[in-house]
Amino acid sequence: MQLKSINTIAITLMFSFTFVILFLTGFLEFPSVNSSIPSPKDTIFSTLTKSNTPEPFQDLHKAFNKWDSQVGCSQFREKHKELLINGSKISSLQNVEGVIQCGELQMNHVSVLVKGWTWIPDNMDNLYSCRCGLSCLWTKSSVLADKPDALLFETTTPPLKRRDGDPLRAYMDLEAGRKRSGYEDIYISYHAKDDVQSTYAGALFHNNRNYHISSIKNNETLVYWSSSRCLPQRNQLAKKLLSLLTHHSFGKCMNNVGGPDMALSFYPECIKDANEAPKWWDHLHCAMSHYKFVLAIENTMTESYVTEKLFYALDSGAVPIYFGAPNVWDFIPPHSIIDGTQFSSLEQLASYVRSLANDPVAYAEYHAWRRCGVLGNYGKTRAASLDTLPCRLCEAVSRKGGRNSKAL
Fold first, then answer.
1. Of the candidates 209, 212, 227, 228, which has an alpha carbon nearest to the alpha carbon of residue 289?
2. C or N: which end of the chain has fewer Cβ atoms within 10 Å?
């Protein structure tokens, strides 16, 4: 029995020694964390090409051509085919393009008068042709809408009481927290749970800007950041991340370029009109387009609060590094942003950004959605934006009967 035990131990030691030798010589290899099946949060790393050799690039067109030859739209569409075939059934967006019951409308024409000071663009004033033959007048002029069917308030509180025959009171709050006034008949916010939803994805947020988009990306300075509202929590996050990445910080917060208007000195092609004093929003998209990445951090990180900070970056042709709404993917195209919350640390995020900046194929994939027409939920986000708000509000007013609606 003792001899048998000794033999067993000897055989075990021999097998162990042989196993170690095979492993050290490369015949055996343990699976690493990176080679394991990725979890949903790890799938972002799969976009990097298998080559470990960095390939710095500046020309976006050349990166696109390389992606076309190695990946292509067919493969990208196949990867996201469920979004193309079935669409996405989510509760974060109202189905504003759904079938409308024309019989529910009680009016053929609705006029909306925008009241008080508001950031709502003047160029929204128009006469709109809506569904079911409904016409909609949206205006800030009490001359054009002398007997409005609804009054729209955004920065001021609606009248405390509404009598029979008075216009309906619509109140809009697109800020985080979306607090009702308590005196409105129709409530508009960025959230799908409210009466009328208005996302930040529309074009009317940034009319008349310089839309020159650079195809040459800055390869030395990777990240664009601009903020003039220096909120402590946002600043702290930005400071930590940007300390790990080369960046240009415009605006008032953490400025490292010599002043808030230095973008035009860096990129004179972004000057909109040499005869006018520049406004920061005139050259925003143009300046962003020179960088591979734009850091976008929401003022408040809450459900469905996805603001222009993200959509500006997408429009500029940069890749957003985003911190904000936990359900952000319900509002944007597939594989279009780097979600900072998917990384275990800012160091890991910065490492990924640096690797992506030196991988033209992986970087180009972040632009594939627009080149291949794979929009996902983004189409619905645009459909529920400020651009379509006039008709959707007029439909809501018409359903209630406008001035004929009984006061509560």
1. 212
2. N
Q: How far is 382 from 375, CA to CA, in rounded Å?
A: 10
Is residue 371 classed exposed, middle or buried when 0-12, 13-18 and 19+ CB atoms within 10 A define those classes? middle
268: exposed, middle or buried (C-beta count within 10 Å: 0-12, 13-18, 19+)? Answer: exposed
Predicted confidence (pLDDT) per residue in 55-111, tens digit = 999 999 999 999 999 999 999 999 998 876 655 567 899 999 888 999 999 999 999
First to last CA, the chain: 96
CB 171 within 8 A of CB 188: yes
pTM tops 0.70, yes or no: yes
pLDDT (tens digit, 9 = 90+) per residue, 16-56? 444 434 333 333 333 332 322 233 344 455 557 666 689 99
Region 297-320 average pLDDT: 96
CA dihedral 152, 314, 178, 297 (to 10 degrees): -140
